[in-house]
């Protein structure tokens, strides 16, 4: 895991809580307590991978998502997990870009002021080798487009580039691609629609059912 233990700042807990109903928040909290075990206050990385994400998510990518949501060696709190999942499922493009920045910055040994070319290249390679892709990703062109002749970029540089190249990486394409114009035979339920609606399942099953639908376009 990366060196970061700092909390992500892409959304506040109060803002996240306002985007769900009281009933949804109650059910999410109950599911978290069930998965958190004895102390009920934090979810471990192992529990996050096993209970929250579906089995098809590669461990390295699951670890990135865990840490970007606020997870540390001590675990992830309910508030941090809620903030992360709200951004993934209900966030606007600015919040999702901040999430991606946090995800990539956390996966390197340097401080969080820059994304470094060598670390970003490793991340792209891992994405392209561990996640199913439908087309070849030209790593050299991506790196040249973002970094030019330099070795690092700031958040503002990363943001400006990503707004133009939303499909540059597997994860950015998953998070930023506009699916509003895509018509499906059955609408995929959101995290909260599923959690609020699946009343006949145990919470543990609900977590996996919900995240399966959330991550299905990229991981399945």
Automatic annotation (TrEMBL):
It holds the Pfam family USP32_N. Residues 16-103 form the USP32 N-terminal domain. InterPro entries: EF-hand-dom_pair, USP32_N. This is USP32 N-terminal domain-containing protein. It comes from Euphydryas editha.
